[in-house]
Design brief:
The complex is a heterodimer of chains A (148) and B (134). Chain A is mostly beta strands and 148 residues long. Chain A has a domain of 82 residues: Immunoglobulin-like, CATH 2.60.40. Helix content of chain A is 11%, strand content 34%. A four-stranded antiparallel β-sheet of chain A has the order 1-2-8-7, with no helix packed on it. In chain A, strands 3-4-6 form a three-stranded antiparallel β-sheet, with no helix packed on it. The radius of gyration of chain A is 22 Å and the shape is flat. The relative contact order of chain B is 0.24. In chain B, 0% of the residues lie in helices and 40% in strands. Chain B has a domain of 91 residues: Sandwich (Immunoglobulin-like), CATH 2.60.40. In chain B, strand 3 and strand 4 form a beta hairpin. The radius of gyration of chain B is 19 Å and the shape is elongated. Classes of the chains: A mainly beta (148), B mainly beta (134). Chains A and B meet through strand 1, strand 2, strand 5 and strand 6 of A and strand 3, strand 4 and strand 7 of B. Strand 1 of chain A pairs antiparallel with strand 7 of chain B, so a sheet runs across the interface.
Chain lengths: 148, 134
Amino acid sequence: MAIIRWGSNPDEISDLDRLRQEVNRLFNVFSPGTEPFVSRVYPALNLTDDGSNFYVRAELPGVDPESLDISVVEGQLLIRGERKIEPEEQKAGYHRRERESGFFRRTITLPARVSPVKVSASVKNGVLTVTLPRAEEAKPRKITVKTT
Amino acid sequence: MKDREMELKEKKEVKKVAGEGTRPGPVFVPAVDILENANEIIVLADMPGVESKSVNIDLKDNQLIITGKVNAPEGEKEISLYKEFNWGDYFRQFTLSNVIDRGKISAKMENGVLRLVLPKVEKAKPQKIKVVTD
């Protein structure tokens, strides 16, 4: 009796393949900060910190800024929106269709407290940048060492 | 069209860049839609982060080459805490058929999407032929 079924369903990933993918992914995640972490949810996000603000950036080409719904709730940033693709004239035929459309929704947990009222967002050239100023108590404080 | 949630597609990196590859960093293949109607062929390419002046469209023989330059927007003091995608230039190459009227190609960059309109030469447009009855 075969332990592993051969060729019954070519789309199915065998357990060995799945294990191999997981091990590869594990090594990618722990390599020194250059490989992006692969997420399965659209859009991909980058989070950066310059000491006084956090910045979250996403690539959202063709997304109408009016459709974006951005909110900060309990230490999490939530981004929702819709990407619409204009249906070109009825008589056009597609040779290639790679761009996707639809709704998207992403949350990201923020590493420190932010001031929700001071959060701002802008879209330029299809890139969304959300600027989240740290709350006063969350700002890094320099502690001076006194010598006696 | 049903409302569906979008799935993330990883940015596809170009393995070798033909022509100039002088800037350091990865180069990505933009997702495109190509459609054709009676008068023109329209190419829509997703190139977020590219400004109008950073788009280059080149026609060599019958090769159409689209490049878009991206400057990473992070300020100097920003430290990356979590990164799901890299910034990089865009590059894609197409073979055009001879039906395109090269002099009339127009391009527009809006919200990170390039819209390229390639009009067909007159004789390539579908001609209606009248059927005459005696």
